[in-house]
Amino acid sequence: MNGSNPTSPAALWREHCGAGAAPPAWALRRLTTIPTIAALVWVVSVGARAEAGSTYQVADIGKRPNQVVHSSSTTTADGSVWVVEATSETSPRLWRTYGTVPTTALVDLGGVTPCLGPIQAVGDEVFFATGYGGPGTPLPRLYKTDGSAAGTVLVKELDSTVYNCPGLRPMAAFKDRLIVSLFTRQYGEELWVSDGTDAGTSVLADINPGTADSGPLQIAVIGDRFFFMPQDGSHGRELWSSDGTTSGTRLVADINPGPDSGVAVDTLAPFGSELILQATDGSHGWEPWRSDGTELGTKMVADVALGAASSGAIDFTSAGGQLFFSADDGTVGTELWVSDGTAAGTRLVKDLNPDGSAYPAELTALGNKVYFSAGSLLQSSDGTEAGTGPVAAIGTGSYPSLLTGAGDRLFFQASALPYGQELYATNSYGYQLAGDIRPGEASSAPQPLAAAGETMILLADDGEHGEALFRSNGSPADTWMLAPLHGTQGGDLQELTAAGGRLFLSGDNREETVNSGNGLWTSTGMPDSAELLLSTWSSYGSFDPTQLAATASGELYFTSARGYHGSAAGLWKSDGSAAGTEVVVGSLGVDQVTVAGDRVFFAGADAAGTELWVSDGTADGTRMVKDVVPGSGGASIRPMAALGNRVLFGASDGASGVEPWISDGTAESTVMLKEINPVGDSSPSGFTAVGSRSFFLADDGSSGRQLWQTDGTSAGTAPVPGLTGDHDGPPTELAAVGTEIFFVLSAQQGATYELWRSNGTAGAVVAVKSFANPIGGLAEMDGLLFFGVAAPTGLELWRTDGTAVGTAMITAIGASPRPTQARALPAQIVGAQGELYFAADDGVTGEEIWTSDGTAQGTAMLRDIRPGPQGSQPRQLTATANALYFVADDGTSGAELWATWIGPGGPVPFLPAAPWAAAAVLAIMAALRLSCPNRPALRPQKQ
Hints:
The chain is mainly beta and 943 residues long. It is built from four helices and 74 strands.
């Protein structure tokens, strides 16, 4: 469908039957008898399916709830909210949202990691900084971004090696420029101004001359000037203002004459065209002051606490032309006050707590009123005693906090049974629960961040995802998750293994939230089909299944990476169900798990040392095959490989070095094949079965590592004859094709790379073709060998039938030069159901998952999983009968499990959750397929 949504029975027919002409009348009748509502559900489902294509995320396995340890936000001129956040397990990231799910996404910063500091919008761009990581790492830098990797621009590199992140305390937008506090070795911490270019970024004024800090705090923009509070080394911390130029930056007034400070930090607030702040002149205490930006126009508003006493006036908030603040006059305690900016017009609004202080806090203007928390209640005031009181009784002990306005609503966090700490919003009659984000008495602990028009953007914990990004318009129906903030740590996916049409893997044990390791997972290939089978936990750590190996009948064997788990260690097996996942034998060190026929061989470690063991899947049928080195010495079992029903492995009997051995599971038939190196270890490796033989690499002590072969007998174990030429090292990239082994040799100090083949007989070693660039990813499909060549311009996909004439390039992927040739080589190429799958970088999208049918026209990227140049970097490609699995990082969930459906029929991702809707979809699928003359398989299309 390529993303289109059919709106008629005829369109549905053409889409799912492939007919070029209109459907026949009988088919139309059948289609139109399906209820209209069901057809609409089908359209929605098909649209989602077509959008997802055949490549989709199977599960976000590594989604343990994270705690957001830092967040800050800003709003750009176009109304989008930008949030920088870092969780307990992730580096800082930048998000952008317009308040809807489709518009919420991580910002692609092109690999730049922002600081855990403020961000500031200037127009439609956002400024942020990066930190200094020590010697050999870049200095702190100031960046700006428009939300794209290409639009993420370095503004200025700072000569600072003091802070991990620059001292970005205050930031503000002023006249289309950025005002920011930065630390440099030349100036110390001073105020800077930037127009978004390197040349236009400079220190505004060296207020505390030399390398000393002026440490400017808080920036308040009023009209064509802004105010801030630095210390110049002579006057203490005082009030300054600036028009954005060095010459226009000056001390407003030395409110407290001499070296003592006259202003209190974080108290600047606008009141009309003037500034309100808390200050002292040394004679009066700390009281509310006002300033028009001149020395004469800077004066005390009122001496609320008479004489040298301080009222500690704070939370200055302008609403309805009045100035509200919290202060203590020394008589009634800390209560709500109001002023018109004059001493005569400054008065107590109401003694909210006659028995002490009400401590009004978080004063927030909304319309002509100010809202605030006092005691445990949400209250509001219009500046009169009668108009001041509780908004509505949420309940004693509700303790509203984090008051934030959006449109004509006030959002806040409060506690009230039976909900716990949740999000509330004001309405025409008082307040309402905006959303029970974490159902029941548990708390979601919402943190309102910023408004996107009428919509509040917030952080909250729904109990499943940890703290996530939410939106709310003030009612439960309009409150939902925009994006989870967990997940970027990925699922730590390892050892993907196919068995019985299913996938098994070791992945993040999401049941544990502390020191979590891996459990055993399985998947059928359908979206959301991943299931945690085994999650064994002890005081030592997690189970961490490893050494996954599957039998032909679909049973899986594995062990634990944690050898100190007591009974949890040992050999395990699984049939793909939780009930069928059980230990075969415990309290045994297990390594090199290898299936041969219907049995599993492994290196078992007990009191007799490490020796060869075999198992039929039962405790009674699990035993040591042979004590090769009697006593506790062990036989130094090396990597094993199957040869029919037997296993090949490296071992040492104590008299000879590590040499090739073979075993059929009996002691008498477990023997050394040949002592290849009489004076040391031949260290056999890379066993690759080709029919009834196996090829491997070994060192005879004189010729270096060479290609050997064995038929499982001593007489049939010999080096492969006929290799000619001067080569730099041993063969690499062994791959079996039919009755031959293909491999790669390098020559002339890496100047050439040669593809060879051999059937193991004299005179049958053939140099297929020589290349000027590295070769990798050798894979067999349909009797042909496919491989990649890392050309300077990118990956080239090749195929060969083993002859020079039959060796040709299929297509070249990418035209942009790579930093290194090796980067362009695929880690692996997998053939499944007549298609090749591999990871490739076309120079634009980064490394993504690709497919090929062996022709240039049939070679295409399956899906741009992570848009932008970074790519999702697919790896661990593993095929089952129905799906091609791989691990990829979409930039949001981290490295997680993805799949491309390759089986018949295909999955139907994103089926509606409602049973009636799912039934309707299935009914339409059946109607369509029964109506089609050829009943084609509904296989998703590539995109």
